[in-house]
Design the sequence.
């Protein structure tokens, strides 16, 4: 195909969009809405995943040991736990270390703990413990049970944030399922609307198409303007959706940076910055929008063009 012919067909595709501007705007609006909701779900999912990953690195389980546990036995137990599956780090916290940590936490009021300092201090009420960091939060409950079984009577209490981890993992799974479900449903809706737009264009140009076929125009020559129209609709929708998603995301980041949202700081500091998301979003949205536009065009042509 010569460049002049290609240029003419591209112009014809854009002309079709302008001639059917209401349907074209409807197609762009539906597809942009599809991409916007998809983008919101994806960003929520990746940020929740980032926070879950952060917790898996920072999250600690504390296994408090009974006062009758000897230091040698506790150290050996810690070494046994270090070799277990899903254990990233394991450390033994003696009674004296527990006092020092408590003093650091209490700050200016730490003088009240002075009487409990020192190794083998019989007045020290704080227990020794084994502190464990897990690799995979989804395996947290199984890991806690395995360590408790290995420790037996040595462990008298366990402090584990299993409820928080379960909630976060469940949220992450739900967001993934909902996000992909929305992609499928809204993608089908967008294809239907774009197909109707192309169908209307085919109907309006049916006499011209018959003449082109009569004089020997190839199938590719007749199809090209419709593909240009569909892909252009998808590209515009992709750019528009990227702007909407990035604008909303920027607003959320600005809100979370305010002092009133300080309680969400641990989550906020693990969110992806705007500079890391806008380019991948733009590429993905334009590619997906163009794909949907092309599929909608192909579906319509196959059904309504005898070429």
Sequence:
């Amino acid at each position: 195909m010569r460049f002049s012919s290609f240029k003419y067909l591209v112009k014809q595709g854009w002309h079709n969009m302008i001639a059917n501007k209401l349907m074209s705007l409807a197609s762009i609006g539906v597809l942009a809405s599809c991409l916007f909701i998809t983008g919101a779900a994806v960003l929520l999912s990746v940020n929740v995943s980032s926070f879950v990953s952060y917790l898996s690195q920072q999250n600690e389980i504390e296994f408090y040991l009974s006062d009758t546990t000897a230091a040698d036995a506790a150290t050996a137990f810690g070494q046994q736990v270090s070799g277990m599956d899903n254990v990233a780090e394991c450390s033994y916290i003696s009674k004296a270390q527990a006092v020092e940590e408590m003093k650091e936490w209490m700050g200016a009021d730490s003088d009240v703990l002075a009487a409990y300092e020192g190794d083998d201090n019989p007045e020290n009420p704080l227990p020794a413990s084994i502190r464990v960091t897990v690799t995979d939060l989804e395996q947290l409950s199984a890991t806690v049970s395995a360590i408790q079984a290995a420790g037996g009577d040595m462990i008298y209490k366990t402090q584990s944030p299993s409820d928080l981890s379960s909630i976060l993992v469940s949220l992450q799974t739900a967001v993934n399922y909902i996000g992909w479900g929305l992609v499928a449903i809204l993608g089908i809706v967008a294809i239907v609307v774009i197909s109707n737009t192309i169908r209307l264009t085919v109907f309006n140009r049916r006499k011209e198409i018959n003449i082109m076929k009569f004089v020997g125009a190839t199938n590719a020559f007749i199809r090209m303007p419709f593909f240009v129209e569909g892909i252009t609709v998808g590209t515009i929708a992709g750019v528009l959706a990227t702007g909407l998603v990035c604008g909303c995301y920027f607003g959320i980041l600005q809100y979370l940076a305010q002092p009133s949202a300080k309680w969400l700081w641990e989550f906020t500091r693990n969110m992806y910055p705007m500079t890391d998301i806008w380019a991948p979003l733009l590429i993905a949205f334009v590619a997906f929008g163009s794909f949907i536009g092309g599929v909608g065009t192909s579906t319509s042509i196959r059904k309504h063009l005898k070429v």
In short: The radius of gyration is 31 Å. The chain is about 70% helix and 10% strand.
